[in-house]
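Readers of this paper often ask what the protein records in our data store actually look like. Such a record has a labelled line for the sequence and another for the backbone structure tokens. Nothing more is needed to write down the fold, since each code stands for a local backbone conformation. The remainder of this section carries one protein's record, kept here as part of the documentation.
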Amino acid sequence: MREITKYHDTSKTVKERAKNKLFGAVYSHTAIILLLILLQIGIMVLTFTYLGNYSTYMNGVISLLSFITAIYIFNEKGNPAFKMTWILFVFLVPVVGVGFYLFTKAGIGTKYLGARLEKLRVETEPYMQQNEYVVHAMKGGRVANANLSHFLYNQVGFPTYGNSQAQYFPLGDDKFPVLIEELNNAEKFIFMEYFIIGEGYVWDTVLEVLRKKVKEGVEVRLMYDGTCSISLLPYEYPKQLREYGIQCKEFGPIVPILSTSQNNRDHRKICVIDGKVAFTGGVNLADEYINKKVRFGHWKDTAIKIEGDAVQSFTMMFLQMWNITERQPEDYAKYLTEKQPGFSRKDGYIIPYGDSPFDHENVGEEVYFHILNHAKKYVHIMTPYLILDNEMIDALTRAAKGGIEVQIIMPHIPDKPYAFYLAKTYYEELIAGGVEIYEYTPGFVHAKVFTSDDDTATVGSINLDYRSLYLHFECGVFIYRNPVVRDIEKDFQETLAKCQKVTMTEVRNRSTFVKIYGQVLRLVAPLM
């Protein structure tokens, strides 16, 4: 009887916990915020719909306004795919479409953000000076890469560095112990900026180290994207971490006010330790990224560690984002390390770069275009998503038609089925153009990697989709003639051996539902 009673008590406890969890989710701060945002959207839609149906005269005014708006959109600077989506929206639902377009153009929340980032870029410019000797030496290898260096420095302020070493991690499983080791070695400061932090083994391990380092007198700053508060972390989590002595903030916290800034997420993954070591890549701070938790089969991700002079750019990138909401002046020089004397050709060239939706340059896409346009033998790509504009499709197929081997590794088990079906709508055009597409049969590919010609590569956070290329804050590192390129290409070949090639027959034999579903999604592809 005691055992039976104990069993029932346990079941009751489980049920009560589940009930409390549901109650907490429904009445949580995040749920209330989301409901208020939905309420604002609903009021906006109803208001515009009511005005549109008010009279024949009003409908005529709205039709004229829709036509004028469509002409304005068509002639505006920007990506044609975004224009097409907006024009379609304006004509399908004129009142709501015009209203949302005007709301977006008003830039509520984004104009300040853009202006503040530009001010911070100017502030950090003295600490991001280009060593002209390095660029001159780069011209002796490949002039086109020196041209890219010129673009990245003169347009968006990212110098090219020599005297920098790199270590590549084919999996998050490989990166994690090295990250923990470097965090334990920190003596002065730790800067961490991640898109996702999820409670579990990975974050518990990192947090334990951070708490220890704070007690040792190490300055620790942590920033993560505000979308984490929706389902991964408590809304008041930054406050809890500050009680441990960790400086913490959310980037773009979800608030109950409609703002276009909510569309621009911080998708970067950066860790800087003492200005001597930096990590970037696709790996977030959650258990699935090191296969501690299985979600979509085996999780294939990549990361890279940089040491030497190039770390300075990652330090400045972090401080720029951190200071968006700060009012006190930053002592940038405090976090810099002395550059190494001379120039070592064996280390090649490294260019850390960031991409912002407010810098008027599609930096990530330009780096990808550059690699495709200047390859001589091959371009090998790993990406979790394939949602492309016409320019990227042209670049991929033009390279393949010119005799360049262009191979793309995609997931076989997707994390977002809708994005996967949408990606498949591009397969036929790409394969017909000579691009080879492979799917990673063990699971999900989250890596964002380009390699080319045994001497050029880029590793970062930038997906081949509209959100990464145009809307999010991103980062990466361009590498030329550094020995690590061989490791990146080796990983691509080893991953390729675990993939199945997608054939034209397979593409054309997709079910009617998959084809139609994907084609409908193409209408709103710029939102993905």
In short: DSSP finds 21 helices and 17 strands in the chain. Confidence is low (pLDDT under 50) at residues 1-27. The radius of gyration is 25 Å.
